[in-house]
Amino acid sequence: MNKVKIYNKVKENDVVTSFYIKSEDGKELKKNEAGQFIAIKPIKDGENKSAIRQYSLSMKPGEDFYRISIKREEHGLVSRYMHDNVQIGDTVEISDPLGNFILKESNKPLVLLSGGIGVTPMMSMLYKAVEQKRDVIFVQAVLNSTAHTFKDEINSIKNDNTNVKTAIFYQNPLESDKKGKDYDFEGVATKEWIEENLPKDGDFYFCGPLGFMKHVYDTLRGMDVSEDAINYEMFGPSKNLANL
Ligand SMILES: Cc1cc2nc3c(=O)[nH]c(=O)nc-3n(C[C@H](O)[C@H](O)[C@H](O)COP(=O)(O)OP(=O)(O)OC[C@H]3O[C@@H](n4cnc5c(N)ncnc54)[C@H](O)[C@@H]3O)c2cc1C
């Protein structure tokens, strides 16, 4: 593990906070591939001091800093500790970037789908795809504006890049949430919506709650999208969606 410094802490919304990380000694951080994560050991004292959790890197790959974006779990050990205890200037221990959930080179249209906090690896893939000038459809499903992570950042990428299209789903919009401005669709991305709006010949990457991922996987397989065009990551124990 490497000792690094938290140099910024930004509240994204009611549930998610981003932490910006630089090395402590000015040494370069190892460059990441789009989609990778780091492991972090933030607790310094007490019985939980060896607790380690994984967080996807959510910034543009290749920056000289890391950004992780953490959803606070009410009873969670590390996510709660990060939100409530870790402050700007603190040091934490992290691994180098890890993981095989990586955006592969391809000319096919790219579809990035996320549910909730599963947006984090999708964000770095979006940046990478924009750099490669790929056609991207970015589908983001969240509860409502209280959990709409990276809204302004994604809008700004979309406004600057005509090859990026977005579809934002609010499962349960607040009265103050405006359709057409804050979000595009109420409810979830149904089987019918996916079949009608996503390209069969695309490369698909997705991340989110297990039920969301199983639904996306089954729908894509039902559209005859081949296994090798389907890529996903679980934020818990890894499972093969084909066997669930
Ligand atoms: C590859 C990978 C990438 C990931 N990327 C991200 C990311 O970008 N952002 C992100 O936020 N997360 C990410 N995660 C998930 C993250 O690693 C943690 O699993 C998550 O933050 C929960 O950790 P925790 O220590 O807070 O919760 P834990 O203490 O490990 O608890 C796990 C769950 O159990 C619940 N729980 C614990 N104790 C109780 C109790 N007494 N009663 C009821 N419920 C309880 C918690 O609420 C929590 O939901 C990723 C995971 C993986 C594997």
TrEMBL record:
Q: Which InterPro entries match?
A: Cbr1-like_FAD-bd_dom, FAD-bd_FR_type, FNR_nucleotide-bd, OxRdtase_FAD/NAD-bd, Riboflavin_synthase-like_b-brl
Query: What range(s) does the FAD-binding FR-type domain occupy?
Result: 1-104
Keyword Metal-binding assigned? yes
Show the Gene3D superfamilies listed in the entry.
Answer: Nucleotide-binding domain of ferredoxin-NADP reductase (FNR) module, Translation factors
Keywords noted in UniProt: Heme, Iron, Metal-binding, Oxygen transport, Transport
Annotated transmembrane regions: none
Stored Pfam families: FAD_binding_6, NAD_binding_1
State the protein's name. Oxidoreductase
Q: What organism does the UniProt record list as the source? A: Clostridium sardiniense
Q: What does UniProt list as this organism's lineage?
A: Bacteria, Bacillati, Bacillota, Clostridia, Eubacteriales
